[in-house]
């Protein structure tokens, strides 16, 4: 190859980008066709930080990311879960990984959580990192982004749903919004997009999909009304149940029916 050729990348970072690690897939399909179509690269691209704002830590984001994680591990990628919630579903597939899975809880300090993720990326270039962080400072964002770029990793940063209102330097930001049944609306935002794109995906687990409808568990939603003021009402139940009930009340109000019925 002619080193004077203008097409030859001369800087170190151009050579690094033009010769990615063969063990790292450049792009992982998400496992959801509609979501793939909404993403600029048609999936999760290596070297990007994907921020997932989830209202149910440990459940919804795992159903969203699980298919891509399985695909990446099957292609030889190492996997790490840093500060995962205790409510993470007991997936038999995770238990079967044994030494191929790294799982750690650095503690409540947000900086320690990010540092643990960065150290793992340094030791496992091109790996798959799922990191749960309540808070992210600007220096932590810069350090994580720099490590992700340098080591060509697939990094999924899971944060509370309320953080979707904050500014974010993530390459892709996903906001999970519960819909009816096991369907979720995914709000996809990228720095290049003028507005977020809303995509509806099904996050139903396989066990629930196989269960007959007659075996569905009854609703555990409770409605508590203040006897002194009926306008003050509390809904107690899962997030999906509360959202369904609010949708029902909104429809009744739009039709002119009393809300108490």
SSE layout:
Elements: H1 12-18, E1 27-28, H2 33-38, E2 44-45, E3 48-54, H3 60-74, E4 79-82, H4 92-95, E5 101-104, H5 110-123, E6 128-132, H6 138-151, E7 154-160, E8 172-178, E9 183-189, E10 197-202, H7 206-210, E11 222-225, E12 233-236, H8 239-254
Parallel strand pairs: 3-7, 3-8, 4-5, 4-6, 6-7
Antiparallel strand pairs: 1-2, 8-9, 9-10, 11-12
Organism: Caldimonas caldifontis
Protein name: Recombinase RecA
How many domains is the backbone divided into? 2
Low-pLDDT segments: 1-9, 18-22, 206-219
Q: Overall pLDDT, averaged?
A: 77
Top CATH class of the largest domain? Alpha Beta
Annotation, overall tally of beta strands: 12
Count of helix runs: 8
User: Which strand-content bin applies to the residues?
Assistant: 15-25%
What is the annotated CATH architecture of the largest domain? 3-Layer(aba) Sandwich
Topology as a string of helices (H) and strands (E): HEHEEHEHEHEHEEEEHEEH
Helix content, binned percent: 25-40%
Strand order of the largest sheet: 5-4-6-7-3-8-9-10
The main sheet comes to: 8 strands, mixed
Radius of gyration: 22 Å
The best one-word shape is globular
- What structural category do the secondary elements indicate? alpha/beta
| CATH superfamily membership of the largest domain | P-loop containing nucleotide triphosphate hydrolases
């Amino acid at each position: 190859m002619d080193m004077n050729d203008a097409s030859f990348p001369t800087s170190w970072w151009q050579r690094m980008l033009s010769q990615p690690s063969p063990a790292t897939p450049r792009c992982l399909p998400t496992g959801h066709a509609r979501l793939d179509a909404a993403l600029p690269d048609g999936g999760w691209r290596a070297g990007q930080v994907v921020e997932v704002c989830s209202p149910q830590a440990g459940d919804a984001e795992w159903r969203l990311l699980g298919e891509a994680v399985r695909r990446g591990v099957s292609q030889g990628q190492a996997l790490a879960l840093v500060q995962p919630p205790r409510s993470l579903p007991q997936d038999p597939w995770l238990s079967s990984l044994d030494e191929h899975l790294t799982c750690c809880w650095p503690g409540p300090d947000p900086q320690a959580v990010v540092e643990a993720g960065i150290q793992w990326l340094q030791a496992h270039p091109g790996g798959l990192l799922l990191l749960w962080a309540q808070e992210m400072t600007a220096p932590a964002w810069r350090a994580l982004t720099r490590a992700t770029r340098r080591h060509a990793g697939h990094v999924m940063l899971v944060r509370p749903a309320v953080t979707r209102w904050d500014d974010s330097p993530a390459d892709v930001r996903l906001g999970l919004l519960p819909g009816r049944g096991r369907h979720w609306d995914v709000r996809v935002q990228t720095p290049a997009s003028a507005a977020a794109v809303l995509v509806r995906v099904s996050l139903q687990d396989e066990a629930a999909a196989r269960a007959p409808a007659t075996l569905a568990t009854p609703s555990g939603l409770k409605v508590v009304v203040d006897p002194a003021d009926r306008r003050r009402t509390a809904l107690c139940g899962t997030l999906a149940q509360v959202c369904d009930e609010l949708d029902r009340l909104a429809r009744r109000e739009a039709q002119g029916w009393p809300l108490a019925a």
